[in-house]
Amino acid sequence: MKNIFLCKETALGETRVALVPADVKILAPLGYAIAVQRGAGLKAGYADNEYAGAGAEILQNTAEGYKFADIVVRVIKPDDAAGIRKNTLHISSFDVFNEKAAVEEFAAAGINLISLEMMPRTTLAQKMDIQSSQASLAGYYAVLLAATRLPKIFPMMMTPSGTISPARVFIIGVGVEGLQAIATAKRLGARVEAFDTRPVVEEQVKSLGAKFVKIDLGETGETQQGYAKELTPQQIEIQRQGQAKVCAQSDVVITTAKVFGRKAPLLVTKDMMKQMKPGSLVIDMAVKTGGNVEGSNPDKDVVLDNGVTILGGDSLERFIPKDASNMFSGNITAFLTHFWDAENKTFNLDTSDEIIKSCLIASGVKPEME
Q: How far apart are CA 183 and CA 185, in angstroms?
């Protein structure tokens, strides 16, 4: 396995590219042969001649690419496995838990399917972790989106007409997205509060200059993968009640609470938003996985009767595709480099390796997924 084909993304609204020219320059000298579909990098700011200059061949379409490829790389999974040769290694984002039929289709076609979301959260695999790299940019952009849509400025400002008070921003969920959102809101001069079910993150919140909101939920914690553990219905209700007062005082509420492999918990209800001020914004960054905010919609803004606007924050990293692509490409390049067998000049699909075992979700055998 050494022939890599980089696909042009076809998913609606996708602007990223899975490999950038700088990383082609890293992979080609190892022994990988790389072909790029024409126009693959244009939306992310990379022209075909940059790829050609880095050592890649430019192909017209996926049909040509699939014939060439031992390895296919893309950001978002294709609509189907048609045209991909048996034993090809396909690397992309892939929602294992909600796309079981698609996984079975790839398995039936004899394709080795890597889901980048399933990369283990270990020190060794950290450089391959798209969840962290893309979430950081999404958290940053969520705050910029709020700053441009909010009918007031973020920082305190002294003016001849008086003092403008800083915007109040409340961030629910202090993972990678939340931490970057806190840091960005603080840099813009907002007064920031944050909450997470994991008390261990309180020091991280404070280190960024924000206030940690304490709500006694009883026993909580995080999984071995570093995600917040799923709360009981009773704990979620206590959390809602504790957050209601903070939401009412906030100009911006950003929710990032996700439970890996499960529907996102509903944390901000319409009753809570009724107490918020006209013009306030709520950004639901978990809208794609069921939503933290009642009534949020991934495809459009929702304006409530009291003037509060709910924005769907799905895949906000797509709005900064150059940097998002650089980071995504870095993750894939780290993966391809780590498993390169220099002696035999091939990618070593070592199914006994802990990283491969975690993210190889189809290998020509119908997967057993509970």
A: 6
pLDDT in tens, 210-251: 999 998 887 665 555 555 567 788 888 888 888 999 999 999
CB 339 within 8 A of CB 356: yes
369 found inside a domain: no
User: Which residue segment(s) compose the domain that 178 sits in?
Assistant: 135-319
Whole-prediction pTM value? 0.89
Q: Which residues are catalytic?
A: 121, 126, 129, 132, 227
Shared-domain flag, residues 139 and 246: yes
State both tokens at 13: 């609204």
Q: Identify whether 129 is part of a domain.
A: no
Looking at this protein, which amino acid is placed at residue 183? A
- The CA R_g of the chain, rounded to the nearest whole Å, is 22
Q: Is residue 260 part of a domain?
A: yes
Q: Does 127 map to a domain?
A: no
Q: Determine the Cα–Cα distance for residues 196 and 73; give it in Å rounded to an integer.
A: 35
Q: Which residues have C-beta within 8 Å of that of residue 233, sequence separation ≥ 6?
A: none
Residues constituting the chain: 370
Q: In the block, which residue shows the tokens 């949020």?
A: 296
Residues 237 and 330 in one domain: no
Three-state secondary structure of the chain: CCEEEECCCCCCCCCCCCCCHHHHHHHHHHCCEEEEECCCCHHHCCCHHHHHHHCCEEECCHHHHHHHCCEEEEEECCCCCCCCCCCCEEEEECCCCCCHHHHHHHHHCCCEEEEHHHCCCCCCCHHHCHHHHHHHHHHHHHHHHHHHHCCCCCCCEEECCEEECCCEEEEECCCHHHHHHHHHHHHCCCEEEEECCCHHHHHHHHHCCCEECCCCCCCCCECCCCCECCCCHHHHHHHHHHHHHHHHHCCEEEECCCCCCCCCCCCECHHHHHCCCCCCEEEECCHHHCCCECCCCCCCCEECCCCCEEEECCCHHHHCHHHHHHHHHHHHHHHHHHCEECCCCEECCCCCCHHHHHHEEEECCCCCCC
C-alpha 340/C-alpha 286 separation (Å) is: 35
- pLDDT tens readout for residues 188-204: 999 999 999 888 899 99
β-pairing verdict for 302-303 and 309-312: antiparallel
